[in-house]
Specification:
With 420 residues, the protein is mainly α. The chain contains 18 helices and no strands.
Length: 420
């Protein structure tokens, strides 16, 4: 069994089973809710689609600055306490969602869910760093990314069953089940040991030495860490193409059958869920910045393939889209764990909350820019969106190549130290 776990690329989870189980439960709950957030309010209330859109937009706007607040709180009280609070906030949000009947009630519920998600993601990477050691973090980010991907997929399947049933009771049952799931996750996380082991080890491994904590001004003025933010924004934009560009391109631009989109999502889920950890294991000895640059290059190759598929006859286009999606997913698998490890190792644990909030803000900004940008580009020519994304990937490579001289942790080899 131990040999199989090693071959799959999983880190040693001895002593971390409660944490891993809690993350899996969270992913499952999020996977159920995210695909039906709009439908839930439409089915269980008298709200109109425009009103629901306003509610979800307002909640996102309100939650946006909270990402920065979370960083300061993490540095003050620790990542574990913040994630515990996030679980309780999410539980409360789903309880309120059970009884939503008016516009105001819906805003309260959506804001609670938005704030809970912001708190969770602001503390997630610092907590992963707290339960792991420098040298094994690529393994942990790869493994947890795989786990969350599988959780989202299973949650999505459960959501599709609920949509098929289509009754108010089914939707309410989903909200109740999610509320209960976050109570369970809270109970599991209470027993997680999350002492900061990072600061002394970071100095040994070439990371930033421990130094007194500072305020947000120090973080904002840290031009070297801006490279991480820029690289993360590029990676996030490329990743969000799966949700906001590829499906529309397949259905609206190429007029291919709907099952092609479903197959693309299935390929992505299976590859990331079952292959990312093993891929990270195979990268042992490679330099972090080399792997990250390769990830951007493979992403760009996938985007080029998607663009070229649009020039082919329908049957060949289907094959081209599927092959390009496989290449695209390999780019995703290469970049994500490496970026997460660089970000948490780049600065001392005493400031990790604030720095990881900056890292998370890159994802938040990308998620706000991507939908409208991709939609506009898709209406301006067959290749426009793919050319733009290839340029984004090229910029990501430029930024990554500049990292090692200013962020030594980016030039370190991937050790997967838990192999020892």
């Amino acid at each position: 069994m131990r040999r199989l776990v090693r071959r799959m690329g999983f880190p040693s989870i001895a002593g971390h089973r409660r944490f891993v189980t809690a993350i899996a439960i969270d992913a499952l709950g999020s996977g159920v809710y995210m695909p039906v957030a709009v439908l839930y309010l439409l089915k269980t209330t008298d709200l109109t689609l425009p009103e629901v859109g306003v509610i979800l937009t307002l909640s996102a706007v309100i939650a946006f600055p909270f990402v920065l607040v979370v960083g300061s709180i993490v540095d003050r009280v620790g990542a574990k306490r913040v994630i515990l609070a996030a679980n309780l906030t999410l539980m409360l949000g789903y309880v309120v969602m059970l009884f939503v009947s008016t516009f105001a009630h819906a805003i309260v519920a959506a804001c609670l869910l938005g704030l809970g998600q912001s708190a969770f993601w602001g503390a997630y990477s610092p907590l992963v760093a707290a339960i792991s050691s420098p040298g094994e973090r690529e393994l942990w980010f790869g493994f947890l990314g795989s786990l969350r991907n599988i959780g989202f997929a299973v949650g999505g399947l459960l959501a599709s069953v609920m949509i098929t049933i289509g009754t108010v009771t089914a939707y309410k049952g989903m909200a109740l089940a999610n509320a209960i799931s976050f109570v369970i996750s809270f109970a599991l996380l209470v027993g997680v040991r999350a002492g900061e082991r990072a600061a002394p080890a970071d100095s040994v491994s070439g990371g930033a030495p421990a130094e007194p904590s500072g305020g947000w001004a120090m973080v904002v003025r840290d031009k070297d860490f801006h490279l991480v933010s820029a690289a993360t924004t590029a990676y996030a934009l490329a990743s969000l193409a799966l949700n906001f560009a590829i499906p529309v391109y397949i259905i609206e631009t190429l007029a291919l059958p709907g099952w092609v989109t479903g197959t693309v999502f299935t390929l992505n889920t299976v590859m990331v869920g079952f292959g990312q950890s093993a891929l990270v294991r195979q990268l042992t000895g490679r330099r972090r910045h080399h792997v990250l640059s390769l990830g951007y290059a493979v992403y760009a190759l996938g985007f080029a393939g998607l663009g070229l598929a649009g020039l082919l006859p329908p049957v060949a286009a289907v094959v081209g889209v599927l092959l390009a999606s496989v290449v695209y997913t390999i780019g995703e698998m290469l970049g994500g764990p490496i970026l997460g490890a660089i970000a948490v190792d780049a600065r001392p644990a005493t400031m990790r909350g604030r720095y990881m909030s900056m890292y998370q803000m890159s994802w938040t900004v990308a998620s706000m820019v991507a939908p409208v940008s991709f939609a506009w580009l898709l209406t301006h020519g067959l290749l426009s969106v793919w050319i733009a994304l290839i340029v984004v990937c090229a910029l990501g490579i430029v930024v990554t190549r500049a990292m090692p001289s200013r962020l030594p942790v980016a030039g370190l080899p991937i050790t997967n130290a838990s192999d020892a």
